[in-house]
Write a structure and sequence with these properties.
This protein is α/β, with parallel strands linked by helices. The protein has five helices and seven strands, in the order H-E-H-E-E-E-E-H-E-H-E-H.
Length: 132
């Protein structure tokens, strides 16, 4: 599947999005992008061990702590954090990884794809959603 088809497929079929690195700071991209997603009908699951709640949703310390399997794992973390996220996704059998704009880890993305995870990298999920 080419990238535009993958993006369209992910965004039109997903209902739940785990947002890794979602900040309570309203000036941060993770906050306003997540707010946009929430306003457009997605159920968010914040992943941030430093906070208990954001955007009216309970925050979880890790993907493993989630009560459900999210349709998309959207990441707002530094590239160095991506390999561990990919490993956790593989363990949990999660299939859609979205690395936000300017978050690039080619090796981790390749490892994810080799293990059946669809990857969108270096793209803003809000910008792509607006294009649909």
């Amino acid at each position: 599947m080419n990238e535009p088809e993958l993006i369209r497929s992910m965004l039109t079929t997903a209902k739940t999005i785990a947002v890794v690195g979602l900040s309570a700071d309203t000036s941060k991209p993770s906050h306003y992008v997540s707010s946009y997603l929430q306003q457009h009908g997605y159920k968010l699951y914040p992943i941030n061990p430093s906070i208990t709640e954001v955007l009216g949703e309970k925050s979880y310390p890790s993907l493993s702590a989630l009560p459900i399997k999210p349709d998309i794992v959207d990441v707002f973390r530094l590239p160095i954090a991506i390999p561990a996220i990919v490993e956790e996704m593989m363990t949990l059998n999660l299939r859609n990884l979205w690395l936000q704009q300017e978050i690039v880890n080619t090796e981790a993305a390749q490892h994810a794809e080799e293990n059946g995870i669809h990857v969108v990298m270096d793209r803003c999920i809000m910008v792509e959603h607006r294009r649909l």
